[in-house]
Amino acid sequence: MPPQNTGVAAPEDLRDRKLDSSKSDAKKDVKGDSEEWNYWDHLYPVNIFWFILLHVGAAYGLKLAITDAKFVTTLYAILVYKFSLFGITAGVHRLWSHRAYKARFPLRVFLAMCNSLSYQNSVYEWARDHRVHHKYTETNADPVNSKRGFFFSHVGWLLCKKHPDVQRIGGKVDMSDILADPVVFYQRKYYIPSVISLCFVMPTVVPWYFWGETLWNAYFVAVVLRYCLALNATWLVNSAAHMFGDRPYDKNIAPAENRIVSALTLGEGFHNFHHTFPWEYSTSEWGWKINLTTIALDFFEKVGLIYDVKRVTPEMIKARMARTGRHGHEVVEEHEYMWIDKK
Ligand SMILES: [Zn+2]
Ligand SMILES: [Zn+2]
């Protein structure tokens, strides 16, 4: 039986949120954004080559999807896209990076497999970079620092060496809780074989075996095109959702509410909310609205696969909006009226 939980983060939980509460202190560790560091001097030509090749291959995959591949192959590619993103959103993001809920062993295994399917670095590395991103948002130590522009925060950060502050801080992040999870340990140990089999081989073979698609079409549609789109969708959280949208919860930070990004990422675009309440399991206060991940997590909670789910209360949100929100007190009342999912 799952441990009992009120569904609301206890005050001591909030105080203990190392990822958030120590943030202002943490930023003192890094130098200002003006420090001289020219990324052009530290490019990774091999990464640049592979990402160009990936996008050319994805364009070709799109052509095949429209002109040659079976329709069911495209539907299958969309399904694989969603499962791969689920390994990011529910898995490495909400579960392992933020500990917004706890999950039973079988679900953790499933999430780790979806994570390998997404091929965005192992759970360990992804969570480490993400914790640094939250703690040092928009500083030199932020791996995806959006102050360096849309392109850098979208993909540019993968094309060059990490800023020295990112490397220095990344090595200091507390990852003991993550390493204590055997699922994370073995996913990291067998990361390459799991990526080859789940991200590349499985999506190629399934359409060929079950409905007679050519291996060529299956590879370019369900692997190359799907992988490229899922990567870009995830990157939009770091780029677009750090630039475009409203900031109702905290007007002092760059992350913004972006519904388009939410639609593309199964619910990860409510980014002003998420950076304000990073421990909240839903990354939004709007429940199932544009948030497939939350729909799935609510189901998993009902059947006992997840527990200790952390939730904000309307009172906490209103208090925060009145204090730091873009619209201040005026819109808080109206916001209360919009509160539809928590009653
Ligand atoms: Zn962010
Ligand atoms: Zn996050």
From TrEMBL:
Any one GO BP annotation for this protein: unsaturated fatty acid biosynthetic process
Major localisation: membrane
Known cofactor(s): Fe(2+)
UniProt-listed CDD domains: Delta9-FADS-like
Membrane topology: Multi-pass membrane protein
Residue ranges with Basic and acidic residues bias: 12-29
GO cellular component terms given for this protein: endoplasmic reticulum membrane
Residue ranges of coiled coil: none
Bilayer-crossing regions: 43-62, 74-96, 190-210, 216-237
All copies of domain Fatty acid desaturase, residue ranges: 76-278
Residue span of region Disordered: 1-29
Similarity comment: family membership: Belongs to the fatty acid desaturase type 1 family.
PANTHER family linked: ACYL-COA DESATURASE, DESATURASE 1, ISOFORM A-RELATED
Free-text comment on this protein's domains from its UniProt entry: The histidine box domains are involved in binding the catalytic metal ions.
Name recorded for this polypeptide: Acyl-CoA desaturase 1
Species for this entry: Folsomia candida (Springtail)
